[in-house]
Structures are given as C-alpha cells and as structure tokens.
Specification:
This protein has 222 residues and is of the alpha+beta class. The protein has one domain. 19% of the residues lie in helices and 23% in strands. It is built from 4 helices and 12 strands. The strands form 5 sheets. It has a 3-stranded antiparallel β-sheet with strand order 1-2-3, with no helix packed on it. The longest helix is centred in the N-terminal third of the chain and has 16 residues. The termini are far apart.
Length: 222
C-alpha cells in the first residue's frame, strides 16, 4: 500500500502554525505585597515585564504632600497622597538612568522610577499588544465614563487628580492620574510625568509642574 505524502509546503505551514500556537501563552502577572516599615502600611505589588511596581499609590505622610481636597476620609484609602516633586525626591537630584537609584520618599528597597523606567513599562505594554487601558481599574466606581479599563496588568490605576499651587486647589479627580518620575525635562523645566485619562487608552508622557502635587508609584530595586 502506498504511503500518502504530504506536500512539503503544507507540512512546513503546519509546523510553523503549531509552533506559533505553542508560543501564544497568555500573559500572566505575578503579584505580591510590600510593607512600608516606616508606618506599617501595606501595598499590593505586581511584576510587569522585568519590573516590580507598586500596584497602589503611595500614601506616606510627608511635608508638602496632600490628600485631594485635603479630605483624608474620602480619598486616603483609594488614592493615596499627592506629592510635590521635591518631596518625592527627598533631596536627591534628577536622574534619567534605568534604574534611577533615587529612593526618594519610597519605602526601603524601592525607588522613584525615572522617565526611562516608565518608558520601559510602556514599551512592554506595546510589545505585548497592551495599552494604558490594561493598567486602569475596571468600571466606573472611581473612573468616570467612558472608562475602558481592563486592569489586565493588575496595576490598579485610579484617577487621583492633581493638587495645584502648593496645595491651594485640587482638580480632575475621577478623570486623570499622573505619576511623578525622577527625571527633569530640561526643555520645559518641569518633570517628566506619565499618566492615564478616563477616555483614552494611551499612557501620556508629559512635562508636569514642580509646584503641583502628583501621584507616586515606586519600583523595586534590582
């Protein structure tokens, strides 16, 4: 009996397709917790690519940091505190390296991410067909419509808004969150910030003001 021969081009296609299917493993994100020994507060953490990130906003009490509208009862648990850049840096100089090596106001073993570290995060998202929506908390409990957050990356981003003019005014709660980096933007004189908006899927990279209060997410030291 003759053996049926499979044309080589079909066999090659089958082997490539089978290999691709094996490579298409769903992304998983390892999670954990850290405890800030200064005040005993615990934070969720998540590994995204090669970086361990805090998966909650820093809530360490420091001079020149505020709760939105100075209302700790409403905003402390979900949104953490909003910090001046100088407060977040805790006397250390601007850094653009990856890692930044700026502990700043971060817990022991963690540091303020540089602009380059934020870019590493967004590059990982892009390389894996993810967007800023995959960093955002799902639903409209905190984000206003239309939020398309999936929280696939378990980053738990919430729209903490901004404090302006050294604590005088607050705005944009439920609409935006902007995170401080350790890197000065030499053109604008501000600092590079990275943020998310309620109605956009991109991660914004923008210069932010030194006299305004922003959210802080730290990265684990290598």
């Amino acid at each position: 009996m003759k053996t049926m021969r499979i044309p080589s081009i079909i066999l090659t296609f089958f082997l490539i397709a089978t290999s691709c299917e094996k490579d298409k493993q769903p992304l998983t994100f390892e999670t954990g917790t850290l405890t800030d020994t200064r005040d005993g507060q615990s934070y969720a953490t998540v590994k995204i690519g090669n970086q361990w990130w805090m998966a909650e906003d820093l809530n360490y009490n420091a001079y020149n940091s505020w709760y939105y509208n100075n209302d700790s009862i409403t905003y402390a648990t979900i949104y953490g505190r909003l910090y001046l850049w100088a407060t977040a840096m805790n006397g250390q100089a601007s850094s653009s390296t990856n890692p930044s090596n700026v502990q700043g106001i971060g817990p022991a073993g963690w540091h303020i991410p540089s602009d380059a570290e934020w870019i590493e995060l967004t590059t990982f998202l892009s390389n894996n067909n993810l967007t800023g929506d995959d960093l955002k908390e799902m639903g409209n409990a905190h984000w206003q419509p239309t939020n398309n957050g999936t929280n696939l990356a378990k980053f738990n981003a919430v729209p903490s808004g901004t404090v302006y003019n050294n604590g005088v005014a607050s705005a944009n709660i439920n609409r935006y969150v902007t995170y401080i980096s350790s890197t000065i933007d030499t053109v604008s004189g501000g600092v590079w910030g990275h943020g998310l908006e309620y109605n956009k899927s991109t991660v914004r990279r923008i210069p932010i003001g030194l006299q305004n209060g922003w959210s802080v997410r730290c990265v684990k030291d290598e």
